[in-house]
Design goal:
There is one protein chain. Helix 14 packs antiparallel against helix 15. The strands form 3 sheets. Strands 1-2 form a two-stranded antiparallel sheet. It has 512 residues and is mainly alpha-helical.
């Protein structure tokens, strides 16, 4: 694990924190002063400096698309799960381009050729979240109880969120809640034990009652009570922890009843810049192009994301049909386009039929369709000042109110609740898409609605795994791209070999 040592002058730490990304588009959340002399155990003893540490704990959320260091890869977290499902292909120049993506898609990732940057980014987030909790103790009475509770709640929810990445992709991982001392080794525990620790930590954070249900505009990007509730439902449902289904349902009902969130009338608007942090948004990871100075030489500088460039058609004439060119990764499968009713407003808002409106260089696995939600739209990087490839302003939508409704519908079924209410929640999402059918809430209908609603948002693969459908759905395809069938022993990725080597015999490799 990449761990930054604590017993060094804060000068270096603060310079890093000032350079890396913060998650709010508001300047008040981005301002970080860089001291020149203080040591960290004297610097982090007041509210102003603790706020800097909290900002730094959010930074790794934005690193997954591309980072820094010897193990940097393109790991946009939504795409990394979706390529293992059945709605998008990998694409690129050929099956050696971002080869580890192709290996993941075919369930044959190898320790020396697998996803490893997300592992490092997630543990950096864990480390920084732990830092905040340590610094709260150092500050003591120099901060108010209200501020201390808020910082603690934010740090603990973030820590669980980072661990959720690690838990879902790798399962059996090192887990720690206090940062490590040399030689920086932590016990590896089983996936079920990781879940038990995460859920206890999250419940403790929620019980602090220190987070608002919805953030004010100057704090967009910070975790909220609604975000923590959505994270709770996500991991409880993925674990199939029936004992906590009632609590998860209660949390969904609280979000629904709060009045802070509602479905956007126009589905396509959700994914425009003007739709960021709209009425449907529960939580997003922020990226901005305004003054963005992220560059290939300094990829952790504040700025945008490379995702739109990755997934747009190669050789596209910039500006044609309001889109810009890209590198041809993650084309949408034709079967995905075909699964929509022609009246479903989500179809064109999700699947951009580039082949029908312009020309480009077809790449591997090309279908003509690209993920409209996140492709490069002309002008969405116009205000960057460093590198246009890396500074697109597309926020990554993590939790939306439509998922709150569908979670609630599913949890009602699982707890033998009011079937009519479950159907109502399901049909709110269904009807927003312009479809008039009145669906009955069954697990199949809810999962089908999720499949239509969340293409490219990193939900589908986990839905198939948690509901036991992966083995029957994720099978060899007719094109010869996926030749292997998903099986239980493929649930977890191999742990990166560099981590196995660095762990001095304390890490056991996953089956692969």
């Amino acid at each position: 694990m990449t761990i930054i040592m604590k017993k060094i002058k804060f000068t270096y730490i603060a310079l890093m924190a000032a350079a890396v990304l913060a998650t709010s588009c508001k300047e008040s959340f981005l301002e970080v002063e860089s001291p020149t002399q203080d040591f960290i155990d004297t610097y982090f003893t007041n509210d102003e400096h603790l706020q800097e540490a909290v900002v730094a704990a959010y930074d790794p959320l934005e690193w997954t698309d591309w980072g820094a260091g010897p193990h940097t890869q393109y790991n946009p977290v939504n795409i990394m799960s979706d390529i293992m499902a059945d709605q998008i292909w990998v694409g690129g120049a050929d099956k050696t381009d971002n080869q580890f993506w192709h290996l993941m898609m075919n369930y044959e990732a190898l320790p020396n050729n697998c996803m490893w940057w997300l592992w490092e980014a997630a543990y950096s987030g864990v480390k920084r979240s732990n830092d905040v909790l340590t610094y709260i103790g150092w500050a003591g009475n120099n901060i108010t109880k209200k501020a201390a509770a808020s910082y603690e709640a934010q740090a603990r929810v973030l820590r669980v969120f980072y661990y959720t990445w690690l838990w879902k992709f790798w399962g059996n991982i090192p887990y720690y809640e206090v940062n490590l001392n040399a030689p920086y080794l932590a016990d590896q525990i089983k996936a079920d034990e990781v879940y038990a620790k995460m859920i206890a930590d999250l419940e403790g954070a929620i019980d602090l009652n220190a987070l608002p249900m919805k953030a004010t505009s100057d704090n967009y990007g910070r975790v909220t009570k609604a975000m923590a509730y959505m994270l709770y439902a996500e991991i409880v449902m993925y674990q199939n922890d029936q004992s906590r289904f009632p609590k998860a349902l209660q949390f969904m009902e609280e979000i629904i009843a709060s009045g802070y969130y509602a479905l956007a009338e126009d589905y396509a608007s959700i994914f425009k810049e003007s739709g960021e942090w709209g009425t449907e948004s529960v939580w997003e990871i922020n990226y901005k192009d305004d003054g963005a100075y992220r560059s290939w030489g300094s990829p952790l500088n504040a700025g945008g994301t490379v995702l739109p460039r990755l997934i747009s058609p190669n050789g596209w004439a910039d500006g044609t049909d309001g889109h810009d060119n890209g590198w041809g990764f993650a084309p949408v499968r034709k079967e995905t386009y075909d699964m929509y009713d022609e009246k479903d407003t989500r179809r064109n808002a999700t699947c951009w039929n580039a082949a029908a409106v312009g020309s480009y260089n077809p790449r591997y696995q090309d279908t003509g369709f690209f993920l409209e939600k996140y492709v490069a739209h002309t002008g969405d990087n116009k205000d960057q000042i460093a590198d246009g490839d890396l500074n697109w302003n597309n926020n990554l939508r993590i939790y939306r109110f439509s998922e709150t409704l569908l979670n609630a519908a599913e949890l009602i079924l699982k707890t033998n609740g009011d079937a009519a209410k479950a159907s109502d929640y399901l049909n709110r999402v269904h009807h927003r898409a312009g479809l008039a059918d009145n669906l009955v809430a069954t697990e199949d209908n809810i999962l089908n609605e999720r499949a239509l609603e969340f293409v490219g948002e990193g939900k589908r693969y986990w839905d198939l795994v948690r509901t036991g459908r992966a083995a029957s759905v994720l099978v060899p395809d007719q094109y010869g791209y996926r030749t292997n069938r998903w099986s239980e022993n493929k649930k977890y990725l191999p742990i990166p070999q560099n981590e196995i080597d660095a762990a001095q015999g304390t890490l056991t490799q996953n089956n692969y």
